[in-house]
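*** Fold description ***
***
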Amino acid sequence: MPLSRFRCALGTAVVGLGLILAARVTQGPLETPLGTLHNPLGYVTALAFAIAAGIFLQVCSRTDDDGTDGPIAITWKLGLLALPGIGVYLFLAAAQESFVSDDYILTHQDAAHANWQQPGGDGAFRPLGQSYFDVMRVFATEQPSIWRCASLALHTVNAGLLFWLCRALWPSRKAIPALAAALFFLHASRAETVFWTAASFDLIAVLLCLVALNVWATWNGSHRGLASFCFAVIAVAAILSKESAYALPFLCSLFLLSSERTQRRAAPQLIAIASVVCVLLLAHRLLLFGGPGGYADPETGRPMIFSLNLISTAKALLARIWAVLFLPWNWESGLERLAGPLMMVYAFLWFRFAGLAATAHRYTLLALTCLTAACALPALHLLLIGSSLLGARLLYLPGIPFCMLFGMLFASGGARSHAAGMGVLAIQLFFLGHNLEAWRSAARSADAFCTVAATQEIPLEQAPQRLRGVYVLENGASECVSRKRHSPTN
């Protein structure tokens, strides 16, 4: 079949899948010949693969790319400032809501302090992450707005650090850093990462990983010894903040893709340093836990990492993470009439304009795709994320190479690609607002239950567990009610 006909067939598949998803998001569960469609993530994955195949054909069929970005029009520069500004407004509006679930435990003034000698009760060993909560409890006390503003500040800094890392990797590509950082900030999965205070561990770990990479990018030329020492120290701190930072050696591989020869030459040394740090800390963890530790399987009591099998691993790496990264929509959060048409436009922008002139970077695109999956490996046993996107915070670190991939696909096609990239970002902003609203509703529900339970004899077992697909009081109900009883307003 000629490539043009194959691409036409892919386009037909994209339209068909897009229509199914548009109907699902506007009408609710659909009756199909195969049964009722409740969870559409399989269709989202198929759509993502069809678009990826179309991009692959587009990249491979063009030979006229010189590997540079066209000039970014002032209109799009203003848009790249305005869209994150709207995102900040959405986050700040949500910051006023009450806590949910584990937040009531972690922000409690009498919560356990960081322990450097023993693993935590949940099987985690995050002493530096716990230290962050210890510090925050001193001046944020139990005010949700301060905690969430701190999370937003961390997230904003992370987006800025990603921008500077992209500048260091591809100094001649002006559009890649802006597009990558904008998507990293606006990606709709950030609703969980920024709103849910318990996800601060992810924010801190990624912050330290990006700091370490930027330190190396800045100093490895003239201060190689100092850069190596600082990188190793910060890498240790990142891993002691959250286990997702064990993916740091994969992130270091980004320097192998740099357009600067000095960065590429020094990359093997950086990867070796990161690998040694990870091996040493993993050995320490194995001694401390007497095994890998981590969350325990409620049925067997064994670490959940032992529950991995070939089918679940393939499903997580080859399907689920791409469905969530490509179209991060909480399908359990209610119907949205406008969402259907926007999803169609979203799919069209990716299929038609991504990779218009990226042929000079086809191997970089493939490497970034592989790195996105590789960076998810530390949390592999938790990556079968459902239609509500609960657990999407686990893809915060893999979002780094994914956002770079987005930037490279939409950077080099000139004004048309830049405009399409802006369209994708604007629709992501709509997705973000939708996902945040689910968390805001959950916070209101938690606050309402605790207010009533503080003055009436209501069993805590009646506390709402989840609402619109996100946590309400699955944990922390007793702490929430206790806080309400001691509140000056009660």
Summary: The first strand starts at residue 30 and ends at 32.
